[in-house]
Amino acid sequence: MNYLIYLAYGLADIRNEAFCSILSYDEVAPRRADTRLLIYTDDAAAFQQVLGHREDIIYPAVEPEQWQTWRGAVNKVYLLKIGILEHAATHYPGNLLFLDTDTIWRLDPRPLFAQIEAGNFFMHQNEGRLAIGNTLSRKVYKHLGGLEWPSGGHILRVTPNTELFNSGIIAFRSDKAYLLQQVMTLAEQLYAAYNKHMMEQLAWSLRFAAEGPIADVPNYLWHYWNLKDARPVITQVVSKYAESSHQELLRQLQKLNLPALHQQELAYRNLPGWKRTLRKLIGRRWKMPEFDI
Q1: Engineered SS bond to 293: which of 57, 86, 178, 236, CB 3.0-4.6 Å?
Q2: Residue 180's pLDDT is what?
Q3: Residue 7 pairs with which residues in a beta bridge?
Q4: What are residue 154's DSSP bridge partners?
Q5: Is the pLDDT of residue 22 over 90?
């Protein structure tokens, strides 16, 4: 069995991003008997109000205190995905593909599931070597370079060749779930060493790489991780069109052109610091355009 796994806990904006992602999946992939969606949420009723009661969607029951436990000893929301993947591997064994809610499907993931079945590891995108990456990556390398951590019989090190993968997608076969507690322990150690949000994705990158190569999947979907300002706009669209057909709701969401906005904001973010400062001074910093919802 193949499972797409979403985590939509807390904010209504996160749920609305998930609606956008799920409807985009429906557009590129026909419903199949061997594929289910697992939505880990604290408000299943909100999903059913928009998506209806679908046989291919499962809402695993999670006790309120479990959410806090899954945040780990360092109390990080980023670590929730480790807990839900452990739960999924136990209760829904098969090919597991977790994805963040701020994603839009471009292609049917059926070939991807076949590669997961073959034992491959996937994350969203290789962001390159820490040592020569963006400003934050270089800071992480400066603080953690040369340090080492034992994990699963391996000694994991941050070296000049360490590659960082974006964890907007995490995919593996459920019989490899023994790695998850090792990823959690490593993430807690990394946060203790350098308390930056990206320690979670570094933990996945280091531990998976010790098992074998990690493949990335940017051609399958867009991941607009940098567009937090888009959330209120997405929520406005969902609020207005939630009772329309799924096709109409998706059409209205597509009018936002989130992939193009993702690229525009990313281009601005990657400008040299002095250019960003200059653009701010002359009132030309990047910002979300206004939409007539």
Answers
A1: 236
A2: 97
A3: 40
A4: 151
A5: yes
Contact present, 226 and 265 (Cβ < 8 Å): yes
The pTM assigned to this predicted structure is 0.95
Which residue is it, tokens 């360092």? 74
**Does the pLDDT of residue 98 top 90, yes or no?**
yes
pLDDT, averaged across the chain: 95
Structure tokens at 119: 């034992």
CB under 8 Å to 291, separation ≥6 — which residues? Answer: 233, 236, 255, 256
Q: Which residues 6+ apart lie within 8 Å of 269 measured at CB?
A: 226, 276, 286
Q: Mutual orientation of helices 12-28 and 246-254 as an angle, nearest 10°?
A: 100
Q: Which residue has tokens 């073959």? A: 118
DSSP secondary structure, 164-188, as one string: EEEEEEEEEEGGGTTHHHHHHHHHH
Q: Widest CA span of the chain, in angstroms?
A: 56
What would the CATH number be for the domain defined by 2-223?
Answer: 3.90.550.10
* Segments of the chain assigned E as strands: 2-8, 35-41, 57-58, 95-99, 103-105, 121-129, 148-151, 154-157, 163-173, 214-216, 221-223
